[in-house]
Write a structure and sequence with these properties.
Elements: H1 2-25, E1 44-50, E2 56-60, H2 66-72, E3 96-99, E4 107-110, E5 117-120, E6 127-128, H3 134-138, H4 145-158, H5 175-181, E7 185-186
Parallel strand pairs: 1-3, 6-7
Antiparallel strand pairs: 1-2, 4-5
């Protein structure tokens, strides 16, 4: 019986060897896989919105300025207030550039008798978060005395705010608050 097993094992090993030789010696089938280079960032990606012709997300070359992003978005509308923007500022990846419209009376004040906000005239249409007083901060919708004090304390401890999203670092400020105050604020470092 042993000779039969030896013969069967020999046949199986022979067949496996022949199949392996055929597999190795045969021509490759199909197309070769070519690996492409991973995508590279070709610049900074910014979101431009507000009083411009075409709001959207734009990829700008490294070294571009705010003015370049506005041009890529089709330019500012006639009612745009460009005085709130530093057009020469370099762009940062992920930056949101909001171009506000010029208002005659944009600074809101809280009416004591209701929860609504009514505009009051100001010399400048925007409140600069980096230089605003407690009273000016309290005039913004959704910002009361407590949040105004927290903004001032945060600014004193950590320095100036660069964007609207930086305000989220202040305890108590939520994304909904940012939506309320966005049309009324600016973040210029040199007023």
């Amino acid at each position: 019986m042993k000779p039969i097993w030896n013969i069967l094992i020999g046949v199986v090993i022979g067949l496996l060897s022949a199949g392996l030789i055929l597999l190795v010696a045969s021509q490759p089938r199909g197309q070769a896989v070519t690996l492409s280079n991973p995508p590279t960032v070709s610049g900074v990606v910014v979101y431009v919105s507000g009083a411009i012709r075409e709001s959207g997300v734009y990829t700008m070359p490294f070294g571009s300025r705010v003015q370049d992003a506005l041009q890529a978005a089709g330019g500012a509308l006639d009612e745009a207030y460009l005085g709130s923007l530093n057009l020469a500022a370099p762009l940062r990846d992920g930056q949101h550039i909001f171009v506000p419209a010029a208002y005659d009376t944009p600074t809101p004040t809280r009416e004591k008798s209701s929860a609504t906000y009514t505009p009051t005239p100001t010399s400048s249409p925007f409140i600069n978060i980096n230089y605003a007083t407690q009273e000016e901060l309290e005039s913004l919708p959704g910002i009361g005395a407590v949040l105004a004090k927290r903004i001032l304390a945060y600014r004193a401890k950590y320095g100036f705010f660069n964007s609207l999203q930086d305000l989220l670092k202040v305890y108590g400020i939520k994304p909904q608050t940012l939506k309320l105050i966005e049309p009324y604020v600016t973040f210029e470092l040199n007023p």
